[in-house]
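Quiz preparation item.
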């Protein structure tokens, strides 16, 4: 790493005006975003929206049609590759070898000593609950167990930048939490993490900032709160006397039945002003509970029609 202070404030990943055509098909139109050092960044989008393509272009696997894709101020280079861990969407390890042999082999490729790699691997396998499998051939493990080994191989040299394409795909909830803890530990140890996921629970738990990709452009970009703000934000649950709530410019009534109403606050409307308005209008309110629109709701709003088409 450079010793000049200004570089540390530069983003670790910088993508500007990225365009990617495959033949006559444009997959990415004009995509720009940064990933700051030390953050966990959620790279979100529906199936086929171009996430893997962007990662491949960032890693020099694809040549971009136009635009800038930089890691640490430069296009991808073998040197940058040494400080990077990439868990690709399509997993692939040498399946005829034992778990420990595969892990030590990759550890050595990444510059660890054999003993160091063996020690690290054993500790990791214990942590992810497959310590007793170290001598088993990889193809005798379940899909989830193989994925755990591959994640281990990806993080074993404590990379500065971790790029994880759906790291918890196919895991049960207990193992998903375990993997989330491991990813969080990487961040705590100083890694910058770029993560593709379709699990909004993971985004809410792990990600500092996100981008939502649709039709080759960013539909939203910022912290989870900023994205929630951008998508209209606040839903209010109101229990009242059973009549109909009055109409108001401060909210939209999503439903109102048998004394329970759901309101969507208008942009910029303050929930406490909505409550005051209801009370002033003589509505007996027994519960008033404003909540932010969940990322799940936002995802469905952005991609709903398109995902159904794909189904
Ligand atoms: N090498 C290629 N040649 C032609 N088209 C490609 C190529 N790679 C990707 N595509 C197309 O680009 C689009 C985006 O694919 P990509 O794999 O980047 O999507 P994704 O967002 O990662 O999707 P998913 O969530 O399903 O993994 C798809 O329509 C895909 O068919």
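Solution:
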């Amino acid at each position: 790493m450079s010793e000049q202070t200004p570089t540390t404030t530069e983003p670790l990943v910088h993508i500007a005006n990225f365009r990617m055509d495959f033949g006559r098909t444009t997959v990415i139109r004009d995509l720009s975003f940064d990933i700051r050092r030390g953050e966990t960044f959620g790279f979100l989008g529906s199936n086929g929206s171009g996430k893997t393509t962007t990662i491949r272009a960032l890693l020099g696997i694809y040549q971009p049609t136009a635009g800038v894709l930089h890691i640490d101020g430069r296009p991808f280079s073998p040197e940058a590759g040494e400080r990077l861990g990439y868990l690709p969407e399509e997993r692939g390890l040498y399946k005829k070898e034992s778990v420990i042999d595969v892990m030590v082999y990759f550890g050595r490729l990444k510059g660890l000593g054999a003993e160091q790699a063996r020690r690290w691997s054993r500790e990791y396998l214990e942590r992810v609950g497959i310590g007793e499998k170290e001598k088993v051939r990889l193809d005798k493990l379940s899909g989830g167990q193989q994925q755990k080994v591959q994640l281990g191989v990806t993080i074993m040299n404590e990379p500065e930048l971790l790029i994880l394409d759906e790291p918890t795909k196919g895991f049960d909830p207990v193992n998903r939490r375990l993997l989330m803890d491991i990813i969080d530990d990487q961040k705590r140890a100083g890694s910058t993490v770029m993560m593709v996921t379709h699990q909004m629970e993971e985004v809410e738990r792990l990600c500092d900032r996100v981008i939502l990709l649709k039709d080759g452009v960013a539909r939203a970009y910022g912290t989870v709160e900023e994205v929630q703000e951008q998508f209209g934000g606040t839903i209010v649950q109101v229990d009242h006397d059973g009549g109909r709530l009055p109409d108001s410019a401060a909210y939209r009534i999503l439903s109102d039945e048998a004394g329970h109403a759901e309101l969507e606050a208008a942009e910029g409307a303050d929930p406490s002003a909505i409550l005051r308005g209801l009370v002033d209008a003589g509505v007996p309110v027994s519960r008033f509970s404003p909540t932010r629109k969940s990322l799940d709701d936002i995802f469905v709003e952005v991609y709903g029609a398109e995902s159904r088409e794909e189904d």
